[in-house]
Amino acid sequence: MKRKTDKSMDDGMSIIVKVAAYVLAVPITILGLYIILHGHLTPGGGFPGGAVIATLTVLFLVAAGKEKAKALKKDMISFAGGVGLVMFAFFGFIGTGTTFFYNILANSGSLFGMRIPFGVNPGYMWTAGVIPPMNMAVGLEVAASLSLIALVMFLYTMEDER
Amino acid sequence: MMAFLLQHAPALVIALPLVAAFAMPMLSRLGARAVKAWALLALLATESLVLLLGRDVMSGNPHVYALGATIPSLTTPAGYPIRIIIEVDAMSAFMAMICASISMLVCMYSLQYVRKKGGQDKYYTLLLLMTAGMMGLVCTGDLFSMFVFLELLSVSSGALIAFHARRGESSEAAFKFMVVSSIGALMVLLAAGIFYGQYNMLNLAAIGGMLRFGFLDKVALVLLVAAFAMKCGAVPMHMWVSDAYGEAPAPVSAFLVVASQASLYALFRVCFTLFGVAAATEIMGWALVVLGMLTMFIGVTMAIPQKDIKRLMSYHAVSQTGYMLLGVGVCLAVLGNAAALGSFGITAMQGGLFHVVNHAMYKGLLFLAAGAIIYRTGTRDLNKLGGLAHRMPLTAVFFLIGAFSISGLPPFNGFASKLMIYESVFRFNPLLSVIAMLTSILTLASFMKVFHSAFLGPELPEYRGVREMPPAMWISMGILAVFIMLFGIFPDLVVQYLVGPASQALLDRIGYLGGVL
Amino acid sequence: MKGLLIRSLTLVLLFAFLMAAALQLNPFGSPSHTVMDDYYIRNGQAETASNNIVSSVVFDYRGMDTLLEASVLFAAASGVVMVLGRRGKDEKKD
Amino acid sequence: MIDLPFIAVIVLIMLGISAAVLKRNMIKIVMGVSISASGINLLLVALGYREGGVAPIFTNAPAAQMVLPTPQALTLTSIVIDLAVTAMMLSFVILMYKHYGSTDSRKRRLSG
């Protein structure tokens, strides 16, 4: 079948949308990073934060259009996802001296190893052992995977019939 | 080192293929050779670890592993399990050995089979993820983890079914497979939610220990059995099997057989371990038996008129699943009756479980042989094939071994397990045994037809240039064929050392619960 | 239209079945057994040093699930790239 | 007392499954599976609710009973899995649309 592709969409949307997208990109990134880094203190974590960062890609795809999207490297995004997961599994493996997935950093006094008292407290950044690094790893992976899915689907559906 | 590996083996058998898959995007930059070597290496390591673990478990030493606890055996720090617990008893080890061995052989076969097509690194990534999902499904002792592993298995196998995505039919088969398996997985999740709401536990053993068998538990039982029966391709939901097995690349089809059997394992685990005698065993057992009979008979009758070689084999795969359901269903039906259980129930179950491993091997061999035919001739239409025995004698021999084995001819392994099923089922209900034998005869007839039309007859001019398959393919098939012969010649040893402990473990509900609690 | 009838009948049966189950669940807002979750709330801060108990369940007590869930997403991404992202004319037999 | 949340959840699940079973449009089938997954997620969260409870996070928490944390963790997991499954199924629908020119499941080639 023939699907009509709108050539004018190849370069993305109008300048207004583009500028708005670039302006929005900063707060979206900051929000995503905040959600990832404070996953052990406030609602959120690697998954929601990663999804927020992945919306950046979607925004870019919609605003910048097909030609710019083609310049994104799928291999690199996939690589980033793999790195995130290997990091995650690594933090699982370093506990293997005790058991797989043992939280070896918690209460150890080292990085992220601060003790916290029981009960309500204002929230300390350097706590929770391997949970914050795992959040970061998962955030990287989720952002990469979702971006990759969005990018590939976008390119495939925008592609002309050959 | 050995003791360390053995202690952490239950977690490592799942983690190894996973990590190998995660590292794949990095290795793909080094080229296709590195990807293949890495995948094969990872699966070899998994296989050796599983064999190490399996030898220990089969000698009567089940492993329990609490992930993230201060010591692996600390399952109940407060009197109840709070972490995910991997529990490997003889049954789990039995299934894990099947999964690991077949995945390794499939990977070896794929090295040459998927040579010319793009997306190889993704193919091996998904193969490794599928292995991890299967290993997890058979090893885990946690209901929610079971759901997650099931989804990992179905997402990765769904993608692999659509490997030849531009054909259209394969994406259609994959879509159908994904819909069925995601609805099945959602039913498992719903059952897990029901259990969680009642007992505040997700561990299989803990739930089993607290089971009251009220109305909600029965709902959960029905949901779980329906979901896993759907996933293993029992009859009312068998339509996805023929599409998925038929459209997937041949090595993936061979692997999907094992994936279905992992679901079958989950079904048995739920019936025997989670519910046990508490379930209305008579009704449940008969339900499985009837399901098995229908699956067996409808599968084979739909297979006979097929023209597509892989589609035909898929319907036979459905039909063979019926034998396993029949054998284990008979055992479930007499579970409350000690005399009947001792005299034929255990034999029926051993027959069913023996058939699981045999089916994985001969169906794998048949699918791989079909793959070899497709690889060399480029067609899968039986009407177009013919006279291949002149050009591909090795493939013909392997196909014949698989065909004899699936039809239950001595001295192949299919005969050994089918004989055990016939004998024991005859004492339960003679009619069922007769139908099972009839199905076997129909299977033989169907495969003789295939063999005749694909391999025998005069050499066709269009296949004059066809050569024997490349070495990696026949080596992996040869290993399967050798094991089929060995299992057929020494069935008593296999039953004694592999199937016997597995069936004992499945019956030993108290032992499984006691491992955790 | 026989197939439609069978499907609708199955759906109605399933609906009745699940509804009967829903009416039997614990009353909303007061779960009857809470031992496991009380353990998390009581000991989560001491054992994992995380203020967010959900995080400590996700990444510590049920860490394997999370690894697996991330790998499901990874599998989906790999699968989507594999089926949609391939360029070139490498389609052939099988 | 009738527990409205649970009834609503079952209605949602059944809506999704009905759509998946009865609809012809494949996009709607995907939507149906997604809806029933959401229904089950809601069921999990509803099972863990305690009357008047607050989120199980100690950072500046008000002094009240906390709701159960496990269902929230399970829901988080299951949402991501559902997302992955939906992405996978949608890509198959895209492929089929490209191949057959329709999202109608009756136009498919495979039978049975």
Brief synopsis:
The complex is a heterotetramer of chains A (162), B (517), C (94) and D (112). Chain A is mainly α and 162 residues long.
Your description of this structure?
The complex is a heterotetramer of chains A (162), B (517), C (94) and D (112). By secondary structure, chain B is mainly alpha-helical. Chain B has one domain (2-516). Chain B is built from 20 helices and 2 strands. Chain B has helices at 2-22, 24-27, 32-58, 90-113, 120-139, 143-161, 169-199, 204-210, 215-232, 239-247, 250-275, 281-303, 309-333, 338-377, 393-406, 413-428, 430-455, 471-489, 491-507, 509-516; strands at residues 63-66, 85-88. Chain B is globular. The longest helix of chain C is centred in the first third of the chain and has 23 residues, at 2-24. Mean pLDDT of chain C is 81; it is low at 88-94. Chain C is flat and about 60 Å long. With 112 residues, chain D is mainly alpha-helical. Chain D has one domain (4-51, 66-105): Helix Hairpins. Chain D is built from 3 helices and no strands. Chain D has helices spanning 4-22, 26-47, 70-100. The chains are: A mainly alpha (162), B mainly alpha (517), C mainly alpha (94), D mainly alpha (112). The interface between B and D is large, with 38 and 33 residues.
List the helices and strands and how they pair.
The complex is a heterotetramer of chains A (162), B (517), C (94) and D (112).
Chain A: H1 15-37, H2 46-64, H3 66-71, H4 74-93, H5 131-158
Helix pairs in contact in A: 1-2, 2-5, 4-5
Chain B: H1 2-22, H2 24-27, H3 32-58, E1 63-66, E2 85-88, H4 90-113, H5 120-139, H6 143-161, H7 169-199, H8 204-210, H9 215-232, H10 239-247, H11 250-275, H12 281-303, H13 309-333, H14 338-377, H15 393-406, H16 413-428, H17 430-455, H18 471-489, H19 491-507, H20 509-516
Antiparallel strand pairs in B: 1-2
Helix pairs in contact in B: 1-3, 1-5, 3-4, 3-5, 4-5, 4-11, 4-14, 4-18, 4-19, 5-6, 5-11, 6-7, 6-11, 7-9, 7-10, 8-11, 8-20, 9-11, 10-11, 10-13, 11-13, 11-14, 12-13, 12-17, 13-14, 13-16, 13-17, 14-15, 14-16, 14-18, 14-19, 15-17, 15-18, 16-17, 16-18
Chain C: H1 2-24, H2 35-48, H3 53-61, H4 63-84
The Cα radius of gyration of chain C reads 23 Å
Q: Percent of residues of chain A in beta strands?
A: under 5%
Strand count, sense and barrel status of the largest sheet of chain A are:
none
What Rg of chain A is obtained from the alpha carbons, in whole angstroms? 20 Å
Specify the number of helices of chain A: 5
Number-wise, the strands of chain C total 0
Q: Which structural class is indicated by helix and strand composition of chain A?
A: mainly alpha
Helix fraction bin of chain C: over 70%
Mean pLDDT of chain A: 81
Order of helices and strands of chain A: HHHHH
- What is the count of DSSP helices of chain C, taking H or I runs of 4+ residues? 4
Span of the ends, CA to CA of chain A: 11 Å
